[in-house]
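User: quick one, fold this
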Amino acid sequence: WLKDSQPGPLEFTAPAMPPAPRTAIFDSALHVLKGAVVSVLRIPTGKSTERVTVGKEANTGVLTIGNMPAPVSDEQQKSIGELANAKIAENVPFRVFKISRSKAEELYGETMYDNFKVPDSVTELRLVTLPKWSLNAGIFPIAKTTGLLGKIELTKFKHNANKKIVEISFAVTPPSPDPELVEEENDLTEFPPLDSCVPGEADGAGECDAVTQSEGQKVTPWDVEAGEGGIDYEKLIRDFGCSRVDEKLVQRIERLTGKKAHRFLRRGLFFSHRDLTNLLDNYEKGVPFYLYTGRGPSSESLHMGHLIPFTFTKWLQDAFDVPLVIQLTDDEKFFFKEGTLEEFHRLGYENAKDIIACGFNPDKTFIFSNLDYMGTMYPVVVKLQRMITYNQAKGCFGFDDSRNIGQSAFPAIQAAPSFPVAFPSLFGNRTDIMCLIPQAIDQDPYFRLTRDIAPRLGWQKPALIHSKFFPALQGFQTKMGGSVTSSAVFVTDTAKQIKEKINKHAFSGGKDTAEEQRQFGADITVDVSVAYLEYLLEDDEELATIKSKYAKGEMLTGEVKQRLIGICTDIVTEHQKKRTEVTDEVVAHFMNPHRPTLKFF
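Assistant:
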C-alpha cells in the first residue's frame, strides 16, 4: 500500500541512533581520562571541560577540553593514553562525598567545576575524587575502583582552532558491565585538602621548603652558604626537583631561534628548569609567551652578579622576540630591610636606569614599581593570597611568629606577574599565554609555591630557568652581594677600583709562587677569576685556552686576572655610558603600561 500511495522513487531516512545509556563505567572513565589530560597537557583541572558527550555504543563518548589554541601532539596523545591505563592498572579507589557548596568553594575554588554553570539553587555538591588525580562535582554513579574499568582506548583527537577546543573520543572495555559502586560519604566533618585531590606537582617531592641545608650548604631566597667545594648544583636539582638543561634542550633553543645559544647556556651556567620544554612545545604551535624578571632595590647601584639574569633575559627577549615585564619590589625591601618606604621607592627608579642600560627593547618591555602598579595588579594578588595559608608561608619560607605580616603576604605579590591577567593593557584577557622566568636558583621556592597555586585558579603555570650563583670575589662559599663592597664589582666602580678589587680580593687557585705555579699549575675549579671569565668572556676558544694553560702552569694568576680586569672594565665602562643616556623621560616611557607598542594581543 505504501508503494501505491507514493508514486515515484521510494525514499527512506533511518532514524538517528540514540546515545547509549550513561553508565558508571563511562563516568568513572571520565575522571581517569581527565586526570591524564591535565597531567600531560599541564592545564588546570577546573573549568577546562567544555562538555561531555555520551556515544552511541555502550561506554563510549567524547570529552571536550576548552582553551586549547593548539592541537594535542602525537606524543602527548600517546602519553595521555598510557597514563590513563596506568591509573586503571593501579586499581585506585574512587572517593565520593557530599559537601555544602559554600564549604566546597572555600576549599576548592573552581577546581571542582566544569566550564558550564551549576544552578545557583544547588546548595549541596557531590564530589568525586581520585587521590592526586581528579576532582569534580557530579551526580552520576561511580565504580568502586579504577581497576573495574578494564581498559580505555583513545580513538580520536579532534582540534577546532576557531573554538579552541579539543575533542577526545574514547571507548572503555570493562571486564564486567555492572561494576561494584563506590559508597558515598555523607557525614564528613573533615574534607580532603585540594592538593591531595588534583594531579601531583612535578616540582619536587614533599612540601615547599625554601631551605636546602645539608652536607655543608644552605640555599634560601635570602642566604647562600656553602663549604669549601662551593654549591653542589646536582644536589639542588635533586632536592628542588628541577629538570636539567641538557645539550638536547640547548640545541632545540638554537633551532627555534635560529641563533647560537647564549654562552650562559653553552657553558651550563643556566643549568636547570621547570616546564621549559612545555613552553617550547606551545611556542612551536604558535602559542606566545612572555618573560618576567625583577629587582629588589636595596642599593644605589647594581653589581656584576645582578647583571647576569638581566643579560640573559635580554638575549631571550631578542632571540624569541617576546615581551618582558620587570618588577621592582620596593615593597619587599621595606618589609625585609631597614629603611623608609620612600627611599626604597626612589632606589627602584635609580635601579630602573641601570636595567634600561642593559639594552632591553623599549617597545616590548614594561618596568613597574609594585607601589605604583599595585592598583592594577591587586585583584590578581588577592586571589593568590587567598590560596596561601599562613602555615604554607611559614613552612615554605621559614617565617616565624616574630616576622611582620607584610613578609608573609609578599610571596603572592612576587607571584602575580607570572600570570598574564596581571597585565590587562598588554595581554587583554588571555589566559593561555605562558610566562618564562629567568632567575637564580635561590628564588625557586617563590615560584614552586606559585606553580602549586596556578591550577587551582585556572591559570597556566610559569616556566622557570635557573642560573648558578655568580660567586663573591673571595670564593665560592657564597654569592656576590652588595652589602660587602670588597666582595663585588659594581657598575659604578672606576677602572682603578675594579683593578684593585680583582687583584686584591679575587680568590686564586694558583700556587703561592711563580715557580710552583709553572711546575704544578692552578686548580681552576676554585679560581674565581676563571669562574668570572666563564660568565663574561664570549669567545669559547679563548676561554678554553686560558683554562688549559692556567691549569698546566703555562699562565700565571696575574695574567688571568689581567684579562679579567680588562673585560670587567670594558663592560662597566660601556654600561656607565649607556646609563648616562637614560633620562627621566626614558624611564617614564618604560614604566608606562598604556603605550600602544605594549598592546600585544
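User: anything notable?
Assistant: The CA atoms of residues 66 and 136 lie 16 Å apart.
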